[in-house]
Write a structure and sequence with these properties.
The complex is a heterodimer of chains A (377) and B (302). By secondary structure, chain A is α+β, with helices and mostly antiparallel strands. Chain A has two domains: 227 residues, P-loop containing nucleotide triphosphate hydrolases (Rossmann fold), CATH 3.40.50.300; 115 residues, Nucleic acid-binding proteins (OB fold (Dihydrolipoamide Acetyltransferase, E2P)), CATH 2.40.50.140. Chain A is 26% helix and 33% strand. In chain A, the strands form four sheets. A six-stranded mixed β-sheet of chain A has the order 6-7-8-3-9-10, sandwiched between helices. Chain B is an all-alpha fold and 302 residues long. Chain B has one domain: MetI-like (MetI-like fold). In chain B, a hairpin with a 5-residue loop joins β1 and β2. In chain B, α8 runs antiparallel to α9. The longest helix of chain B is centred in the first third of the chain and has 50 residues. Classes of the chains: A alpha+beta (377), B mainly alpha (302). The structure holds adenosine-5'-triphosphate and magnesium ion. Magnesium ion (MG) binds next to α1 of chain A. Chain B: This is Spermidine putrescine ABC superfamily ATP binding cassette transporter, membrane protein. Chain B: It is found in: Cell membrane.
Chain lengths: 377, 302
């Protein structure tokens, strides 16, 4: 795979505030890469540095393996689709789409057919003479995309392009953007804070948090093998336990947690007394009235929510932690108030070695509910 | 059944009384201003309008008899020349104001929020002092024996004093000086309102600085430019004291003509008729402004 963009050791400060702290990742040619992260984590800032609107405080951005730090935005073969469309309100649809050509000095007669071709691409043929206020939000978004594509960029940057649209239109545009990207084979760098959108559209996702990269991987890997608690929480729902490796035998690795213990697969690379986090997805959690060998996690059934194809349940642990469990919609549920034990298949547990700072916080503050709150949103 | 009728009726009466109280509040707010406007604007204007159709006796007294002859006199030959001159001076002043104000407003609009407020305040501050006083200080500076001429003569740069005031140029200078802020404010407002993303979008699409100015900034600030031109041009027709002070009586402007009718000539009906024409011209310009998509709030200077 050919390398398209590489960020190496990118740092960005605004005054004394460190917004981006040592960002490193590579985007490959033809890839749909999404930057995902909570509000304020620096996604827009990163995108603006790639586009050339901001300069990194330190570090180097490479485009086609050549540094671009001294190139102004228009000299990079990169175009941007802005979050609020940023269409020129005094121009018609065709004038907006053809703007890039006009700036490049393409004569009017030659612009017409190209503009029409772009409009066709975004399924807005014949809209050229319209004024912008005669367009819906979705149509404006398509115009913004057509305008950004007309100069045939190698990379298209999209900053939350769908966030202003209502849910139904957003779903439709997600599919359409994906179709467009496949058809054109252009590299897309896409920003969103909607994890579902990211999972659905992306080849790879770069999960960002507070100005650094948590993990970059394809959607399945992110979901199945999150490297940090943050990723486990941000992508899908999680239950997170923390505890200490208390005993390693040939067949078992036992982890002591507050009010109980659990067992890890024996091949996990841990050492005794190591502090670890164990992530278990709600759909993998099982409940039994009798104790299962290897586990001792007492719990009481607290709530059930019916959600169509699945049932969502909350199990209360002795320390107050609310454990999420989902089960198939047709499955019989234990009664509320019933006491029993929680367990899971050994292979379903995800081990997170405690290096990220959010875990240290949890260790300093032995309150299980805090860890669980992180999974709340 | 009854219940449902009831529950339907209740909200209706509620909205009605709600509507009523809302209307009351609205009128309560508007009424004092309306009376004020009636006394200070509408009645005087009506008076001028009626006056413009009245006749005049030999001694300048007003005879309440309907006539159109005032309007015929408005367009008499010697007056047309004055209008042409006023419109010419007004137009030149407007263009000069525009050329100075635009770069200036652009400069301010690019500053941070604090600097913007301070700079805009500085633009407005001089207007709190009396405009006649300010005009006379220009005279002190620029007349033949004024500060500038004497200094230049002392330095040996010139040998004969330059005529910088008491001519048409002096009038334009005075107009520009007094009216410049009315050009800066609406242009600044329209520039300040331009979404910075648009500039970046244009830059992203390959526009140079000059192309951004030509294709994005100037078109988007057009409402401000129109508003500023109207706010400079119209008062420039009426500011008779500028030509009195700075022109030294060399040229008569529309404002002077009106002033004369009310004072020396004692021809109030003719003065009123000219005023009415000026008001009509203003209204025409305002209508044109709104037709071109201008926002009336811009003229208020916010
Ligand atoms: N020009 C600036 N000056 C100072 N601070 C800034 C500037 N631009 C952004 N920031 C700060 O940098 C941080 C990251 O901003 P950024 O816009 O990159 O976040 P984001 O991940 O895009 O968030 P969102 O999802 O809300 O768009 C924020 O805390 C923001 O307040
Ligand atoms: Mg953002």
């Amino acid at each position: 795979m050919k390398e398209m963009i590489r960020l190496s050791s990118i740092k960005k400060n605004y005054g004394d505030v460190k917004i981006i702290k040592d960002l490193n990742f590579t985007v490959y040619e033809g890839e749909f890469l999404t930057m995902l992260g909570p509000s304020g984590c620096g996604k827009t800032t990163t995108l603006r540095m790639i586009a050339g609107f901001e300069e990194p405080t330190s570090g180097e951005i490479m485009l086609n393996e050549k540094p671009v730090s001294n190139l102004p935005p228009y000299k990079r073969k990169i175009n941007t689709v802005f979050q609020n469309y940023a269409l020129f309100p005094h121009l018609t649809v065709a004038q907006n789409v053809g703007f890039g050509l006009k700036m490049a000095g393409v004569p009017k007669v030659k612009r017409g057919p190209q503009v029409e071709k772009m409009l066709k691409l975004v399924q807005l043929e014949g809209y050229g003479n319209r004024k912008l206020d005669q367009l819906s939000g979705g149509q404006k978004q398509r115009i913004a995309i057509a305008r950004a594509l007309i100069n045939h960029p190698q990379v298209l940057l999209l900053d939350e392009p769908l966030s202003a649209l209502d849910l139904k239109l957003r779903k439709q545009m997600q599919l359409e953007l994906k179709r467009l990207q496949r058809k054109l084979g252009i590299t897309f760098v896409y920003v969103t804070h909607d994890q579902e959108e990211a999972l659905m559209m992306s080849d790879r996702i770069a999960v960002m948090n507070k100005g650094h990269l948590e993990q970059i991987a394809d959607p399945r890997t992110l979901y199945e093998q999150p490297k940090t608690c943050f990723v486990a929480n941000f992508i899908g729902e999680s239950n997170i336990f923390y505890g200490k490796v208390s005993e390693i035998t040939k067949t078992d690795t036992k982890v002591t947690i507050e009010n109980g213990y659990l067992t890890l697969q024996s091949d996990k690379p841990v050492f005794e007394k190591q502090i670890v986090n164990i992530v278990i997805r709600p759909e993998k959690v099982k409940f039994s009235t009798t104790e299962v060998p290897g586990f001792h996690i007492p719990a009481t059934v607290a709530e059930h929510y019916y959600a169509g194809n699945v049932n969502k349940s909350v199990l209360r642990l002795p320390n107050g932690m609310a454990l999420k469990m989902t089960s198939a919609g047709d499955q019989k549920l234990p009664e509320i108030g019933k006491s029993g034990f929680v367990y899971w298949e050994l292979a379903d547990a995800i081990l997170i070695k405690t290096t990220s700072d959010d875990v240290f916080k949890a260790v300093d503050n032995p309150d299980f509910s805090m860890v669980n709150q992180m999974g709340g949103d | 059944m009854e219940k449902s009728i009831d529950s339907e009726n209740v909200p209706i009466t509620k909205t009605k009384s709600h509507y009523f109280s809302k209307t009351l509040i609205k009128w309560g707010q508007i009424l004092p201003i309306s009376i004020w406007m009636l006394l200070l604007v509408v009645i005087p204007l009506m008076y001028v309008l009626i006056m413009s159709f009245m006749s005049r006796d030999f001694y300048g007294g007003i005879v309440y008899k309907f006539t159109l002859s005032n309007f015929a006199q408005v367009f008499a030959g010697q007056n047309l020349k004055i209008y042409a001159q006023s419109i010419g001076i007004g137009a030149v002043s407007t263009v000069v104001c525009l050329l100075i104000a635009y770069p200036f407003a652009m400069f301010i609009a690019q500053k941070g929020p604090v600097a913007k407020t301070i700079l805009m305040a500085l633009v407005v501050v001089p207007s709190v002092s009396n405009s006649l006083v300010r005009l006379f200080s220009w005279i002190t500076l620029l007349r033949k024996t004024g500060v500038v001429n004497t200094t230049l003569e002392h330095l040996g740069i010139i040998h004969h004093p330059l005529s910088m005031v008491y001519n048409t140029g002096g009038i334009v200078l005075g107009m520009v000086y007094l009216l410049l802020m009315f050009m800066i404010i609406p242009i600044f407002n329209s520039l300040d309102r331009i979404d910075h993303n648009l500039i970046e979008a244009a830059e992203d699409l390959g526009a140079t600085k000059w192309q951004i100015l030509k294709e994005i900034v100037i078109p988007l600030s057009k409402p401000g430019i129109f508003a500023g031109c109207i706010m400079v041009f119209i008062p420039s027709l009426g500011y008779f004291f500028v030509s009195d002070v700075m022109g030294g009586g060399t040229s008569t402007m529309m404002g002077n003509l009106i002033e004369n009718q009310f004072q020396t000539s004692r021809n109030w009906p003719l003065g009123s008729a000219i005023s009415v024409m000026l008001i009509v011209l203003t209204l025409v310009l305002l209508v044109l402004f709104q037709r071109r998509g201008g926002d009336m709030a811009d003229l208020g200077g916010r």
